[in-house]
Each structure stands twice: as structure tokens, then as C-alpha cells.
User: Which sequence fits this backbone?
């Protein structure tokens, strides 16, 4: 029975995929065959005529060029099955990202519902945190992989990565120097609690042995310096995905998401659909800018709390919910951006018609084929930053529901106590005490302040670079 179950699962996952949720019903351009491109080349025609006169086998000419202004017609196919996309590079990464994100969301919902119904005691450490961390590590691994690829390419890509890192470090430095009354994440207060709890933990475990080492942790300025360096690294990772997102946004604003089947529909239906697409694209472009001011106390926080009598906890919940909704809309609209990328093959042919000279036929085939092969990378470049922000929002939601003073008995402590009774030689009572002290060091306010800053920074980098890229590509298309 186990073999049959394994065979059944293999059959299912060989025909279905989570990536098909994104690529299904999209249209891609099929690279033209050599014989079709040869019709636009006189050298190819002469070669075939010579072979025909000599009664030789008609082997196509491998190297020939065609005029750039040739009236090429390429065929479009619709993606309807997993067999059409199973050979895409990084397709497994798309499946894993979607599967892990859905699993993390499901576990989070079950955990929060069980806590709300009091089936599970409130604790600062539960299973949803672990799954969220797994998704964060997976998405960060892919972004680091793409960053490594761009660095290895050299040239302009490497220079742009270095320049963006420097600029983001400078920008993060100005943010850290901002007045607490203008923009505040609570980092100073949170780090103060972290230092206080760490000192208690160090004294209880006799980690500090002399009075000369009463301040083993760096100051808050040094910790902000670490956050500045981390901000530069995050900005470098998100530079190229944000540039790509901005270029696709520009194409959508110019109406590059049209599908072949739209030509047979009524103009009224096409007009309504185009307007909805425009509204969705503008929302994805502008909504992150409102996220930037969510931590601006004079503009948003003070106004909401004073005018609408909203408590600080409710305001934090609304702020995180707005960020989560913004990222969810971006995730659910990913099909539009993927179709806009797939349509770049037609844009390439239109651009060729406006140029003079000749081009190698293999270049045309490779360019059209590469557009489809690179679509999986485009999906991940749009998906991973949004998933990172969503997972951080889930952690922040959990921290909001965590009480400041935890109960004396927590599930993790109970488990460790049971392990101590069963295996006293492996886990001692002192180990349980150390674990409890380490958990107390990472306070709720400290984690919430750091994660709030990271969420704000990721959205800021993505919104700023995407806006500049959209403006650049939009202006260049109009020229």
C-alpha cells in the first residue's frame, strides 16, 4: 500500500504544480523555425535551390541573416497544462515558495484560532514562527542567489549593485538620525529592554564575573550601525527585482498585457477590463508609498489616535493589516505582470522593424525562447519580496497578541521539564533555566521594533526603485 501511495503522489505531482496557478491561461510566443526565417533570407533560398538542383538532401543553412525590418509573424500558444512549464528553470522554487507560504498561513490560522478558543496556552514561541522563518530563509536564499548571479556577470550589473548598496546605506543613515517625533520604530526603547533582560540573564548564569565587564553589549548607536549595514545589504538584494517590477509596470501602463483572445471580444468588454487592469496597476504602484508614511507620527499616527480616538494597539494592527493587504494584492496580480513579460517577445519584433541592417536568425530564435524561459525568474523576483513582507506581518500580528508578561508555565518549558525527567543525563534543570532566560532576552518590544523597521525598509526600497524604474521606462517608451 505504501508503494501504491507513493506512486499515486508521483503521478499527481508529475501532472500538477503550484506554479500552474500562475502560468495557467497565459500566452507565450513560440520561437519561429529555421525554415520560416529562411524565407526572408536570399542566401538561404539560394542554398536550398542549389541543393535541389544537385538532388542533395535539403539540409537547412545554419548561418544566415535576415533583414531587421522583416514582417515576421510568430505563433502564440496558451499554457493549459503542467507539461508546458515543467522544464522552466526555477519552477521547483516557485512550487516550494507557494507551498511553504500556504502551509505557514494555515499553521498560523490554526494556532491563532486555538489560542483564541483557549485550547492552546498563550506563549511567545509557537509553530507558526518556525514556518515563517523557513519561508523567510527560502526567499532570502533565492534573492542572494540572484544577487550572486548579477555580481558574477560583471560590468554594469556589478557597478549598479555596489552603487545601490552605498546609496541605501546613506539613506538608512539619514533615517536613523531622524527625530523620534517625526518617524519612530521604537528601536531605542526595544533595545534598552533587550540590554536590561540580557544583563539579568548574564547575572543569573554568572556570565559576568567582574565589575569591569558590566556592559558587554554594544550601545544603541552601534546597534543602529548594524541595522544600517543590514539595510544596505537588503537594498542591494532588492535593486534588480524592483527595477524589473518597475519596467513591467510601465509596460502594463502602456497596455502591454493584452491577450490574443481579446481581439475577438467586444470593445466594451475590452475597455472595462483595461480600466480594471489600470486601476490594479496604479494601486500596486501607489499603495506602497502610503506604507512609507505609516510610521510618520505627525502625519498618520498622531492624526489617527487623536482625531479618531484609536488606541496604539489598534493603530498598529491597522497599519500591519494595510501592509499585508497591499502585498496580497501584488501577489494575486502576478499573472498580469507575467503576461506583460511574455509579451516582450512581440515588443522585440516591433523594435526590430524600426531598425536598419540585418540580424542573425539564431539571435531572433534565442531572444524569443529566452523570454519564456526567463518568466520563472520574473515570477520569483515579484513573489519573494512580497512573501517576505507577508511573513513578517504574520510575526508582527502574533507579537501584537502576545502579552507583555508571559505566564509562568509555557509549553516549551513543560516539554523541556518532561525531557529532563526522562533523560536527566542529557538535559539538566540548569539547561531549562538557561532556555527560559534566553527566551526572556528577546522581548516583545525589541522584536516588534526591529521587524517593523525591516518591513518599512523593504517596502521603501521596493517602492522607491520601482517608481524610478517605471518613470524611466515610461519616458523612454514615449521618446
Assistant:
Amino acid at each position: 500500500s505504501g508503494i501504491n501511495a507513493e506512486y499515486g503522489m508521483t503521478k499527481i505531482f508529475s501532472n500538477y504544480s503550484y506554479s500552474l496557478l500562475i502560468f495557467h491561461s497565459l500566452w507565450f510566443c513560440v520561437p519561429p523555425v529555421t525554415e520560416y526565417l529562411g524565407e526572408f533570407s536570399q542566401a538561404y533560398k539560394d542554398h536550398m535551390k542549389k541543393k535541389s538542383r544537385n538532388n542533395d538532401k535539403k539540409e537547412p543553412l545554419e548561418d544566415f541573416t535576415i533583414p531587421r525590418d522583416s514582417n515576421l509573424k510568430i505563433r502564440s500558444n496558451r499554457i493549459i497544462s503542467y507539461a508546458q512549464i515543467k522544464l522552466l528553470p526555477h519552477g521547483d522554487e516557485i512550487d516550494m515558495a507557494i507551498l511553504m507560504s500556504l502551509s505557514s498561513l494555515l499553521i498560523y490560522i490554526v494556532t491563532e484560532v486555538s489560542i483564541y478558543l483557549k485550547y492552546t496556552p498563550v506563549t511567545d514561541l509557537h509553530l507558526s514562527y518556525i514556518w515563517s522563518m523557513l519561508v523567510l530563509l527560502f526567499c532570502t536564499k533565492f534573492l542572494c542567489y540572484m544577487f550572486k548571479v548579477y555580481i558574477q556577470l560583471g560590468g554594469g550589473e556589478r557597478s549598479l549593485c555596489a552603487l545601490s548598496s552605498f546609496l541605501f546605506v546613506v539613506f538608512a543613515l539619514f533615517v536613523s538620525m531622524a527625530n523620534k517625533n517625526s518617524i519612530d520604530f521604537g528601536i531605542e526603547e526595544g533595545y534598552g529592554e533587550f540590554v536590561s533582560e540580557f544583563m539579568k540573564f548574564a547575572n543569573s548564569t554568572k556570565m559576568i564575573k567582574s565589575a569591569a565587564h558590566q556592559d558587554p553589549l554594544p550601545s544603541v548607536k552601534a546597534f543602529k550601525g548594524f541595522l544600517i549595514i543590514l539595510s544596505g545589504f537588503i537594498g542591494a538584494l532588492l535593486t534588480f527585482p524592483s527595477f524589473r517590477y518597475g519596467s513591467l509596470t510601465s509596460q502594463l501602463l502602456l497596455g502591454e498585457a493584452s491577450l490574443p483572445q481579446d481581439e475577438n471580444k467586444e470593445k466594451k468588454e475590452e475597455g472595462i477590463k483595461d480600466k480594471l487592469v489600470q486601476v490594479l496597476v496604479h494601486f500596486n504602484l501607489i499603495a506602497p508609498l502610503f506604507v512609507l508614511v505609516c510610521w510618520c507620527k505627525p502625519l498618520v499616527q498622531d492624526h489617527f489616535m487623536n482625531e479618531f480616538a484609536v488606541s496604539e494597539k489598534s493603530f498598529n494592527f491597522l497599519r500591519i493589516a494595510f501592509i499585508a493587504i497591499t502585498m496580497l494584492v501584488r501577489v494575486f496580480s502576478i499573472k498580469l505582470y507575467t503576461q506583460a513579460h511574455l509579451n516582450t517577445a512581440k515588443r522585440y519584433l516591433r523594435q526590430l522593424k524600426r531598425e536598419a541592417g540585418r540580424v542573425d536568425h539564431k539571435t531572433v530564435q534565442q531572444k524569443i525562447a529566452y523570454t519564456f524561459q526567463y518568466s520563472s525568474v520574473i515570477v520569483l523576483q515579484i513573489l519573494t519580496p512580497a512573501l517576505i513582507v507577508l511573513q513578517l506581518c504574520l510575526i508582527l500580528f502574533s507579537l501584537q497578541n502576545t502579552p507583555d508578561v508571559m505566564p509562568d508555565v509555557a509549553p516549551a518549558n513543560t516539554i523541556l521539564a518532561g525531557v529532563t525527567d526522562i533523560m536527566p543525563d542529557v538535559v539538566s534543570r540548569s539547561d531549562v533555566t538557561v532556555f527560559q532566560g534566553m527566551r526572556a532576552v528577546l522581548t516583545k518590544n525589541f522584536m516588534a521594533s526591529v521587524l517593523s523597521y525591516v518591513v518599512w525598509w523593504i517596502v521603501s526600497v521596493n517602492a522607491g526603485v520601482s517608481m524610478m524604474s517605471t518613470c524611466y521606462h515610461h519616458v523612454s517608451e514615449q521618446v
Notes: Residues 444-478 form the longest helix (35 residues). The longest strand covers residues 27-29. Confidence is low (pLDDT under 50) at residues 1-10, 261-265, 408-416.
